[in-house]
Amino acid sequence: xxxxxxxLNLRKFYRYGIRGIAVAALDGISFDVQDGxxxxxxxxxxxxxxxxxxxxxxxVRKSAGECSIFGNPVSINTKRQIGYLPESPYFxxxxxxxxxxxxxxxxxxxxxxxxxxxxxxxxxxxxxDDAADRPxxxxxxxxVQRAGLAQAIVHNPKLVILDEPASGLDPxxxxxMAEMIRRLRDGGKTVLLCSxxxxxxxxxxxxxxxxxxxxxxxxxxxxxxxxxxxxxRLDLNTSDPEKIRNISEFAKxxxxxxxxxxxRLSLEDYFKKIVGGKK
Length: 279
Fold this sequence. Notes:
CATH architecture of the largest domain: 3-Layer(aba) Sandwich
CATH superfamily of the largest domain: P-loop containing nucleotide triphosphate hydrolases
Order of helices and strands: EEEHEEHEHHHEHEHEEHHH
Helix content: 25-40%
Number of domains: 2
CATH class of the largest domain: Alpha Beta
Shape: globular
Mean pLDDT: 86
CATH topology of the largest domain: Rossmann fold
């Protein structure tokens, strides 16, 4: 099976100063993204994520190595297969959501009639069909992100690259964005997700690559990376103090350390419970 994205020893050097000193933004990274999966590209600021995305989009030329989209070198043709949502999208605020998304549909080569249909379909998937005629100037941050997602998918791309799609969103908005990403995956799209929100990456991605100083520090499935060798967690569905004490004593007799603590909601889940119920 041809990988949706394939990089091999990908390098990118930037030069600065009078002497043209070379600084490596990417120092030989290699990873593959399989067709139809949600893949996480994560790492601290300056690790090389943005440079990798720019190379995939054909905005920056690689210095060395190999890079392909669905088996083909990056070119105008591969760009047609990609939808992109930048970290901080900027759109003309006088445009309505429909006008914005239709504009991008026209840029992709659609006819006037096709662009209208495609724009409404994309806005519907992004949950903005009711706000399609409103100007972007009255959109909330979350609505602007949704509009950005709509423009990224309006031309029905095979690959969708999302750079911090939940940036600035509250927990409810973040949850909604995650659901839209799942819908893209279930619809057969490949998604490359760059995010600093590790809990969302863990929920959405089947595999990840962690970049550090321009190199791949770790890469693999979440099961391979997160399972701790020699440790197993046992969840008990009881709050009876006597049962917990008996289980702890039994475990102690086997030479196993057992700790009991009351289960609690995360702050994020509690926030969504309170705020989500009042929308």
